[in-house]
User: Which sequence fits this backbone?
């Protein structure tokens, strides 16, 4: 009889532990983590406080990690209403205005591509931009999946 009640207590504690883990895994994350991005965060904050249609200053620079869309997103609607295509040079960013043109440089190899922001994301901790597969191929990041990048606002 004592073993059964002890087993029930252990089971309840395990369930409680799992619920606590799930709760903490849903907390918000800091999008920018290194010293070079603290100035980037200030740029974004100053841009977001302006009343000029949220236009970003040309030449604004953000550093972080890029990933690219999986094939399952091909043909789905993006946040701005476009139909996503892996063959177009587009990207997702959490706060850049739709239509913003940015140059993304793979910091591992120096290769660059210009993309247009038409979606929101990425929604994975530590990443600042999601690229279409066409853009990812240009900067040679498909095999690695995630690479450090520099993003420069063009217009």
Assistant:
């Amino acid at each position: 009889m004592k073993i059964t009640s002890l087993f029930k207590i252990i089971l309840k504690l395990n369930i409680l532990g799992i619920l606590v883990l799930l709760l903490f895994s849903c907390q918000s994350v800091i999008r920018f983590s290194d010293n070079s991005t603290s100035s980037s965060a200030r740029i974004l904050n100053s841009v977001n406080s302006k009343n000029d249609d949220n236009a970003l200053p040309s030449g604004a620079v953000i550093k972080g990690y890029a990933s690219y869309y999986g094939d399952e997103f091909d043909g789905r609607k993006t946040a701005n209403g476009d139909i996503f295509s892996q063959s177009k040079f587009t990207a997702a960013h959490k706060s850049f205005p739709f239509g913003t043109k940015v140059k993304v440089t793979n910091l591992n190899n120096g290769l660059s591509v210009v993309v247009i922001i038409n979606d929101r994301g990425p929604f994975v901790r530590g990443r600042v931009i999601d690229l279409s597969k066409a853009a990812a191929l240009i900067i040679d990041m498909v095999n690695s999946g995630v690479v450090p990048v520099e993003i420069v606002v063009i217009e």
In short: Confidence is low (pLDDT under 50) at residues 26-52. The longest strand covers residues 61-68. Helices lie at 2-25, 35-49, 133-138.
